[in-house]
Amino acid sequence: MRANKEQIPIILGSATPSIETLQNALAGKYHHLILSQRAGLAVPTTNKVIDVKGQFLEAGLSAPLIAELRRHLEADNQVMLFLNRRGFSPALMCHECGWTAECHRCDAYYTYHQSSNEIRCHHCGSQRPIVHQCEGCGSHQLVTVGVGTEQLEAQLESLFPEYNTIRIDRDSTRRKGSLEAALNAIKNNEYQILIGTQMLAKGHHFPNVTLVALLDVDGSLYSSDFRASERLAQLFIQVAGRAGRASKPGEVLLQTHHPEHPLLQSLLHKDYRHFAETVIEERKLAQLPPFSFLTLVRAEANNSNDVETFLRQVRYSLEAHPLFDNACMVLGPTPAPIAKRAGKARWQLMLQVPSRPQMQKIITAAKPVIAQLPLAKKVRWSLDIEPQDLS
């Protein structure tokens, strides 16, 4: 927008443009340039899927993946494993009665962090010492559920003691300069096995990495967020871009219980452009962005009834606007995906409008009306125009 106001040409560069940006290019709003080859001597990666149905998993690792890791390591290459889940385990559960350690302030489970011997909530930041006894039945039989980067690191050190392993996530890079030091050590080949979250997915040049593995992608295939598949596709392309960046060929492996899923098949055998054009057609049929425009009204308070009542009044205010017609829609109010965070009850309301000017006029007129509602001072509320995160 700034470049448009100043009449300055601007270049938007991405291997994985958002669906909205790509639609602007396809519609002729942006001039579209396509780079069809990788830089330098790099060749396209070989993409494969590992069906883990019925397979025994060691800290999230299947036997075929372990074999591939060993093959690449024995060839004096580096390997990267991607798992977007910090900590040792995402939940701590009682083996006797099924009780699970939950954050008292959020609608979420505590994550077990073995390195600091504590459980933490990744939503409000609260933490407490590790519990050794079930709060439900008093049993001491507590087990970890699921796999985080800490557990994956411990398993790989056990499987490949002759190779050096490094974990890069928000927990391991808190100290100033630690991330830069870790990246330099990787480039100097001091570590052969790299474990990372989204921090390691893009922007880094590791010429000796020849294998990249994504361990857990199934959650994105059936998410309630309509952008989840787009984010998974972008992540896949970005993570795949870490493999085979020099003269060595790269390989990308996806572990999944659903190898037949159309999204995975599209990513494995086509390219991001093909995937994106398919998604554009789906969104056009469903009238989702970029073919409609959304505003998310979020509200939170100590009392859940106050928040729900407030958002119902907001809904009436929006529907009363003269420009609100049959093409407009209000969804909700409904509890937010994380219904309680930091002790507050959270609800949300979605306004869907076919054009941006129409949405702007409705929101501009409704905002002062909403501010004057009786409950407006009792709840904390916000308007998120064209939201990227629906949680």
From TrEMBL:
UniProt-listed InterPro entries: Helicase_C-like, P-loop_NTPase, PriA, PriA_C, PriA_CRR
Lineage: Bacteria, Pseudomonadati, Pseudomonadota, Gammaproteobacteria, Vibrionales
Stretches assigned to the Helicase C-terminal domain: 105-286
Domain of life: Bacteria
Cited CDD domains: SF2_C_priA
PANTHER family associated with the record: PRIMOSOMAL PROTEIN N
GO terms, molecular function: helicase activity
UniProt keyword list: ATP-binding, DNA replication, DNA-binding, Helicase, Hydrolase, Metal-binding, Nucleotide-binding, Primosome, Zinc
One Pfam family from the record: Helicase_C
UniProt name for this protein: Helicase PriA essential for oriC/DnaA-independent DNA replication
